[in-house]
Amino acid sequence: MGSGGELGARAPQARSSKKVYLRFRIPYYTQWGQSLAISGSDSTLGNWNVEQSRKMTPVHEGDSLVWELLIAVPDNFETQYKYCLVDAGKLDLIKSEAGSRRFLTIPQGVEDEAIIDVHDSWQDGSSPDSLFTKGAFGKVIFGKGSEQKVKEIAVETSPFATDFSVHESVAVRFRVNCSRLESGQSVYVTGSASSLSKWVNEEAVPLHRVAGSLWQADVVIRRSELPLKYRYFLRNKAGDVMPELGADRSLNLVPAGRPSALVIVTDGYFRSRPWKGTGVAVPVFSLRSAEDVGCGEFLDLKLLVDLAVRCGMRLVQLLPINDTSVNMMWWDSYPYSSLSVFALHPMYLRLQALSKKLPEDIKEEIEDWREKLDLKEVDYEATMKAKLTIARKVFELEKDEVFSSPSFQQYFDENQGWLKPYAAFCFLRDLFGTADHSEWGRYSSFTSDKLDRLVSPTSDHYKAIAFCYYLQYQLHTQMTEAAEYARANRVVLKGDLPIGVDRNSVDTWVSPALFRMNTSTGAPPDAFDKQGQNWGFPIYNWDEMAKDNYAWWRARLTQLSKYFSAFRIDHVLGFFRIWELPDHAVIGLTGRFRPSIPISAEELEKEGIWDFNRLTEPYVRCHLLKEKFGGKWIEIANKYFDETQHLCYKFKEEYNTEKKIAAALKVGEDAPEQLVKEANETRKRLLELFQEVVLLKDEENPRMFYPRYGIWETASFCELDDHSKNVLKDKYEDYFYRRQENLWRDNALKTLRVLVNSSDMLACGEDLGMVPACVAPVLEELGVLGLRVQRMPSGLRSYQEFGIPSEYEYMTVCAASCHDTSTLREWWEEDEQIRGRYFKDVLGFSGTAPDKCDVHITHTILQQHLESPSVWAIFPLQDFMALREEYTKRPAKEERINDPSNSKHYWRFRVHVTLEKLLHDRELIITIREMNVNSGRAGLTDFSQLPAPEYSDTWNKDQIDANNSYEDATIVDSCHAPENGSSSVTGNGIRDHRIRV
Question: Class of the 281-471 domain?
Fold first, then answer.
């Protein structure tokens, strides 16, 4: 049978006088007051305006609830459409189905006034198979199985053109999504009807890929053979068959009304076992290779991809790779404070790859720098100096040749929209000695005219501008090479999308209206920091961003997708609501959520609360000063406070903000240690007194208030009467956990939907911290994966001390640790009581927990995560290396990447072993490989497709077998078990078995 791949192949035609009826049908259970509607690209379906969409009618068929819509259309009708769950009365959108838009084209030859039934199933974002429509799977992991070109069949070859008039039969178009294909596999359908081969696989009907992962076949079925039973299966060129799981599918015609001439059945997804994969996470700067200078580089990712493939891993996760060169010092090591959300960081440049004809003196200089910077940790400033010094020298030699090349011209044409402002910004930063563009005089405000003059090729400083172009082009070329290498090896590169940009960035200079520059972003107190966090980023002006449909965000995602097929949304909670701090705040405790519904003065007055000054101003009393400062309290009171009434104090104007207090108690780096200690202690206690408030006053409306986080921890709250405490506690609970849910849900659906739909990258959300109840349903609806870190339980299990991997949902990424936490080894050593409980309650061991996280403990923890239902298990490289005792000699504290409680943390961790050495560590590779195979996470349906690890010539098969035995392990062959039950050895010397502990 032929395929009806008409969409996109059909020639334009004059409007027909024929009319046909489309009868859409979809089973879906709704709640009271809800309806289904169809929204589409045609005016008949509302031109994508949900308020003008077509509401459907519910029909009860036995135990099922089916929604129907009958519309008349011309016989040359074609449209794209989606189903929506709406409020039955107002057609307000509740949620749209996930996945790509559906398309529908009327085949030629349909009789006038014929009925076409369209049987669909709801595309659920939480469906495991919905993930496989993303590029990470369709283009990378299963890419080699999707190389077949979309088959376009001429309309007149469709069997429907001659069979619509045969009333004894009905034409059926079978459609199913299937992206999980290995090379050479195709999709077939077989069933109980004679035209479906009567279950004979060898004569089954082939489907053809018509769009993305959608496969289709057109078949004519005798009405006497209905109702029909059928199922899909996969078959490769060798004839091997993989049937879909579950019961047979069924099809019958509409029980009432005029019979249909054509039935279009969209069956959702091919039903197969849940796919699960493993990934490794490491910042680029932390990598170490034989060629890098000072830190890991983009081209080192090729070696990391090789390591991942040999270990049976399918994903490499990175931290942000954008340029952060704001301060031109080690503070810029913080990868989440972008100078530009489009530019790449110069520190990741491979100097040796700048040119194929480097002069010998430059080669020697590179080698000198490489040896000098081959340090335990990253020396950020020295590394940047080396990269920029050498790059400028090569630029002088080859700029004319590079700029005249077609590849550079194409790059410049595609990127000049951000590249020109970036280059101008870097020039002005260096000229004025600061990235604070408010200090740039006439250039403090951005205009296109000023930009054109700054980047003019005739300007005296054009060489500095051109060097930025050259540097970004080289970085793009090297990162693209690494990205293409990963795709070719079927490894997903996962990037990171920071929640904020630096206050002094290209983006805030060019588009200041997109940011609330008088505020700061942070996070409320959590497991990372009991005082909350102040990141210093300006808040986004979402209302302004919405005016052009979030063009800035869409451009960011487009740029990110040039290199990555998956991305991590940093602090995804910020797209629901962000923790906003006033510009004068130092720490993150006295913030509020934006957007949020405040507590009004009227609400409080009705409950007998009226003394708002008492609740909103720092509560400083004589006894609190004595508690904080002991015998020095009078001295402190006289210097920093005014006494407003007997034993009540108010901060003096010169100390009445957190920043003023911090500035007043700042001492020089060369000050005596005792003076530094006293100043820090005084600052800490004064800030504690400044935070002695119960309510935060809205700066724009003094009759609106926000409860301070953790009000019960303040003396101000504790010294209230019981009635006031009860009222304020109830308002607190309402503000943080009840009244905002719908507001935050709607906000996230507007903003996150744009992010998710801006590319086909797989989206993963970092949803740690104080997680609102609306977060999980929204992420589920949008098909965004959540994060599960075992020591930070979330969701319904947040009351537990530890997450239980076996209880995680499929649509999650699970991890034992991450870049914001200590590694497994360090965490194990931090608290004897915690590790004791974990050892007993989670790992199930008896006795006393060992002092160190040895290889056996590490193996057990990682294996437990690998066996979880989570679609991805992603671990820091340090945790994988802890599987080898040889790599655990380094103190565990030296392997931490970030300390979120330290705002000036130096991001400088480097792996102490080169990637080349890891690539030849056959023991580590086989250990990880077997763990992945055992847990079904090797990422392939055929484990024999895994490449063999490479070995030194001094290692033979017997040594490999001897060094990879496990205590209490039963060896089971995964592919071709020998009759005697022993493990088999492939020609490469790799044991072809699975380990079952």
Answer: alpha beta
> Using one digit for the tens of pLDDT, what is the confidence trace for 879-918?
999 999 999 999 999 999 999 888 889 999 999 999 999 9
Predicted local confidence at residue 375, as pLDDT:
97
The DSSP H or E segment spanning 78 is strand 78-87
* Integer-rounded Cα radius of gyration of the chain: 32
Q: What per-residue confidence (pLDDT) applies to 962?
A: 34
Is 948 a residue whose pLDDT tops 80?
A: no
For the domain covering 19-269, report its CATH number.
2.60.40.10
Residue pLDDT, tens place only, 642-666: 998 888 999 999 999 999 999 999 8
The yes-or-no verdict on residue 396 having pLDDT over 80 is yes
* Cis? peptide before 595, omega within 30° of 0: yes
CA separation for the pair 555, 591 (Å, rounded): 30
Residue 652: Cβ within 10 Å count: 13
Q: For residues 315 and 308, is the Cβ–Cβ distance under 8 A?
A: yes
Residue 377 tokens, joined? 């940790």
DSSP 501: B
CA dihedral in degrees (461, 463, 465, 469; nearest 10)? 170
Model confidence band, residue 125 (pLDDT cutoffs 50, 70, 90): confident
DSSP-derived letter for residue 372 is H
- Pairing of β 592-594 and β 578-582: antiparallel
Residue 850: asked if its preceding bond is cis (omega within 30°), the reply is no
Quick: pLDDT tens for 414-463: 999 999 999 999 999 999 999 999 999 999 999 999 999 999 999 999 99
Element (H, E) at 54: strand 54-55
Distance between CA 64 and CA 62 in Å, rounded? 6
Q: State the chain's mean pLDDT as an integer.
A: 88
CA count, 13 A, side-chain hemisphere, 722: 0
Structure tokens at 393: 């020298």
| Tokens 């972008």 -> residue | 338
Q: Can you state the percent helix, strand and coil of the chain, rounding each to 5?
A: 40, 20, 40
Closest CA to 577 of 840, 359, 433, 767: 767
Split at pLDDT 50, 70, 90, the class of 74 is very high
How far is Cα 568 from Cα 335, in angstroms, rounded to an integer? 14
* Interacting residues of 836 by C-beta distance below 8 A, sequence separation 6+: 848, 849
DSSP 8-class letter at 792 = B
Give residue 939's pLDDT.
57
DSSP designation for 373: T
The Cα–Cα gap between 253 and 264 comes to 11
Q: Are 576 and 774 in contact (CB under 8 A)?
A: yes
Element (H, E) at 812: strand 812-815
For residues 645 and 970, give the distance between their C-alpha atoms in angstroms, rounded to a whole number: 79
- Residue that the structure tokens 């490489």 belong to: 370
Tell me whether strands 984-985 and 991-992 are parallel, antiparallel or unpaired: antiparallel
Q: What pLDDT does residue 85 have?
A: 92
DSSP 903: T
- Cα gap 581→579, rounded to integer Å: 7
Question: Are the C-beta atoms of residues 785 and 805 closer than 8 Å to each other?
Answer: no
Inform me whether the pLDDT recorded for 668 exceeds 50.
Answer: yes
Asked whether the beta carbons of 116 and 110 are under 8 A apart, the reply is: yes
The three-state secondary structure class of 336 is: coil
Q: What token pair was written down for 729?
A: 């506690």
Q: Looking at residues 583-591, what average pLDDT do you find? A: 90
Q: Distance (Å, rounded) from C-alpha 759 to C-alpha 775?
A: 22
pLDDT tier, 949 (very low <50, low <70, confident <90, very high otherwise)? low
Q: What count of other Cβ atoms lies within 10 Å of the Cβ of residue 496?
A: 23
- 493 beta partners: 316
pLDDT at 956 over 60: no
Q: Name the token pair of 500.
A: 């904020």
- Domain chopping of the chain, boundaries: 19-269, 281-471, 592-735, 785-919, 941-997
